Please model this.
Amino acid sequence: MTLSRPKISVAIIAKNEGDRIARLLKSVQFADEIVVVDSGSNDNTVPVCKDYGAEVIYQQWQGHTLQKQFAMEQTSSEWILCLDADEEVSVALGKEIRHNLDHIDLEVNGFSMPRLSRYLGRWIRHGGWYPDRKVRIVRRGTAVWCGTDPHDKLIVKGKVVALSEPLLHYTYRSIRDQVATINNFSDIFAGQHGPAGNVYILAGTAHFVGKFLECYVWKTGFLDGIPGFIIAANSAWYVFLKHAKAWELKIPPQKSRRP
Model:
């Protein structure tokens, strides 16, 4: 008797990703099902997804963790591949995924993979950005999205196998996009942390210096050239900014008054 191949679904969350989601969708055509949870795009994201055979479901934005959990729960296959709209499954990774699922052990409930990011015209292999291993494939009913927004994490109950081929990540579209993300993520952090005292600014300053040295020197970000320097500087700025915004929350709202 010939056993049927294990089926795999792809779960994606998106909003206004029409300029780049086609690359991802094209790379996962080996899947049995593609589900895109859209949180209100006003560009061509939805029609692009439908053109590639994806089922598109609207869900108001619930935060990174809850939105990804919702997307995962909308799929129907035994195996679920969870992806972001700015990612792409490399040809080699797609073959590795299919091979491993075709020869799966019963005790295996998940797979992790290295993620290789492209930014400012080059693949970034230092500064803490690589291998950036992520768990992205799980057996239905064995995993849940956890973590504190915006830093979500897929937790698996059971054995996780490490794959070797990379998931490609086309991170920030530009420096402007990275700065906008830093601004958004630091807002989220400050809102979760709440008002902080003056010592928090001192801590943020120390972390600023430490983060730059970590990314650029210790994790050899200098080997990525100018992009490596920019990444280290912006990573350090994000660390300081989230401390500064938490401190800012303790300032009473300003009233209209003359100086």
Observations:
- The longest strand covers residues 8-14.
- The mean pLDDT is 94.
- The chain is about 40% helix and 25% strand.
